[in-house]
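[Discussion] Sanity-checking designs against the backbone

I'm trying to build intuition for which residues belong where. Below is a structure token string of 589 positions. I'd appreciate it if someone posts a full sequence so I can compare it with mine line by line.
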């Protein structure tokens, strides 16, 4: 991607950011009778900036990774305690203290992230809430250093002693963190958060470690909260205690972050304003300060009911727009050169048996996939086809038998490691991530982003929209084809296509079939195709294996298999003509 394209990608982000910075500068640097941040509201503005950074920490976890954590304020408290200790016992510069505080919370981010590996939703919320309560308990027995004698009062860097200047510092740190998070969110590790939020199975299938992605998200969240903890100590003007970091504070903050969509910089700024200005207005008018908390809770419920994007998702600069670039042209046709059936097997599935209690889903299934061929697996619903793919790709581990890829046993490998070693797959249900662009989704499946020309060739071959087209704006059928393209981006040895034609029209299915036939020659890999469209399977496959009730009932060339009366009875429910060219699709209907 060249410089002009990169600038174009970030233009919509930079415009609101520049506006925010300009407004903050006017509020701080204008004369007292002009600047809207007067002396009486300067402290509230500081609170808004710090709360915005905390909201960014909590919002990026939920909005980007789908992890509902209620301990963001606890990370802030840990960092604040470390900063307080450094103020009392050391003579380090302010920014060094902030950096140390941010580093100090990383082990706790790893700890909570480790607990989150197998948890999601309300279970994760309960665990993180328990962690928050435990942190408050520790603070109760280990008071904040200097809280009794005010030794840490007014710890601010030189040049930022006044409230107005300290607000400017806090706001610029918030902007810098927001931009850094946006940059990181466009890298593969950041895009992986979106993948986990969308589907953990698809994330593992793309060669990404789901546990590592979750831990990484918690570490980044903890660092952001740790920076906020250092700024919080500079904001401090009175006694500080564990009451400041009660779990309810995290709950209120998370509610406001979800309500506005604080995974973005604009959302974080709005969340900070709401969390500081509204309670201040209520307090100054003598109204009950619990009402804003109810407002945030109702707003969070509304945001979740609308998909979790929050208020900021409706901002003009965050609305997806169609690309102005034309769809890539398909490259010249290349004849498929698949190796004939019976060649050396690159994938050897031997005596695969899968049992769920008393139910046998697969019984001693044997399938060989020769190098650079397209092999089909068909069978009626419930025959065990998807179980076969899940077992071979590592999503089902309690099986008997052997999976050998290119002479190497894979049985001890996880799904992630199998994907990295050359086994890729698509899923029956669409797993494309709407929040990403076409190019981002493709590059999520590879260790290093594809060169621009290679990406254009891949998109052109499958006749997909341009790389900067948001997936949310393309139709379901095109998304299915996009998933096939993404599975091939890493140049695997074998790719499993699980009903890729589901939801496609006749024209799209025929075009997809032509592409599948050319995959071995173009990408140097074999294809194991599972598909209910038997006509498509007969057209593109050199061999077909038929499974019924978890048992292989037929194997051979398309002509042999589809002429087999056993297959006709088990799969089609009637006799068929002894020719591959019959209207098999019509027979299925």
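Best answer:
Here's mine. Compare freely.
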């Amino acid at each position: 991607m060249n410089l002009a394209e990169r600038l174009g990608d970030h233009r919509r982000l930079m415009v609101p950011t520049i506006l925010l910075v300009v407004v903050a500068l006017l509020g701080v640097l204008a004369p007292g009778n002009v600047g809207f941040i007067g002396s009486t509201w300067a402290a509230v503005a500081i609170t808004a900036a710090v709360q915005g950074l905390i909201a960014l920490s909590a919002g990026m976890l939920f909005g980007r990774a789908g992890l509902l954590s209620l301990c963001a304020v606890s990370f802030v408290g840990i960092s604040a305690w470390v900063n307080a200790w450094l103020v009392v016992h050391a003579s380090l510069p302010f920014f060094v203290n902030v950096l140390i505080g941010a580093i100090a919370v990383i082990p706790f981010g790893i700890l909570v992230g480790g607990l989150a590996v197998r948890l999601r939703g309300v279970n994760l919320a309960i665990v993180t809430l328990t962690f928050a309560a435990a942190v408050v308990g520790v603070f109760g027995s280990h008071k904040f250093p200097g809280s009794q004698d005010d030794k840490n009062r007014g710890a601010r860097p030189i040049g930022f002693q006044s409230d107005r200047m300290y607000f400017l510092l806090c706001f610029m740190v918030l902007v810098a963190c927001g931009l850094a998070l946006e940059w990181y969110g466009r890298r593969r590790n950041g895009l992986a958060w979106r993948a986990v939020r969308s589907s953990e199975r698809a994330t593992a299938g793309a060669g990404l470690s789901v546990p590592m992605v979750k831990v990484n998200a918690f570490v980044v969240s903890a660092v952001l909260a740790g920076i906020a903890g250092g700024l919080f100590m500079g904001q401090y003007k009175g006694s500080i205690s564990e009451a400041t970091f009660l779990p309810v504070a995290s709950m209120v903050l998370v509610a406001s972050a979800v309500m506005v969509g604080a995974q973005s910089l604009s959302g974080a700024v709005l969340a900070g304003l709401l969390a500081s200005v509204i309670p201040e207005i209520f307090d100054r008018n003598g109204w009950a300060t619990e009402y804003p908390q109810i407002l945030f809770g109702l707003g969070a419920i509304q945001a979740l009911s609308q998909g979790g994007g929050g208020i900021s998702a409706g901002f003009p600069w965050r609305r997806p727009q169609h690309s102005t670039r034309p769809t890539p042209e398909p490259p010249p046709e290349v004849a498929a050169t698949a190796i004939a059936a019976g060649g050396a097997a690159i994938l050897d599935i031997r005596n695969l048996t899968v049992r769920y209690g008393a139910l046998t889903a697969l019984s001693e299934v044997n399938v060989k996939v020769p190098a650079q061929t397209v092999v089909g697996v068909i069978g009626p619903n419930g025959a065990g086809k998807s179980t076969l793919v899940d077992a071979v790709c590592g999503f089902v581990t309690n099986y008997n038998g052997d999976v050998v890829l290119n002479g190497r046993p894979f049985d001890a490998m996880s799904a992630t490691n199998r994907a990295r070693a050359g086994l890729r797959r698509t899923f029956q249900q669409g797993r494309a991530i709407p929040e990403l662009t076409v190019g981002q989704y493709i590059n999520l499946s590879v260790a290093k982003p594809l060169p621009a020309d290679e990406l254009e060739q891949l998109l052109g071959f499958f006749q997909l929209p341009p790389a900067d087209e948001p997936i949310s704006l393309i139709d379901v059928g095109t998304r299915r084809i996009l998933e096939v393209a993404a599975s091939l981006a890493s140049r695997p040895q074998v790719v499993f296509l699980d009903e890729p034609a589901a939801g496609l029209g006749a024209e799209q299915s025929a075009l997809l079939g032509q592409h599948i036939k050319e995959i071995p020659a173009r990408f140097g890999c074999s294809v194991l195709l599972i598909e209910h469209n038997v006509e498509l399977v007969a057209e593109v496959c050199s061999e077909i294996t038929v499974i019924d009730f978890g048992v292989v009932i037929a194997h051979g060339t398309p002509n042999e298999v589809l002429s087999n009366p056993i297959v006709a009875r088990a799969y089609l429910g009637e006799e068929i003509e002894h020719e591959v060219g019959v209207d098999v699709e019509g027979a299925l209907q």
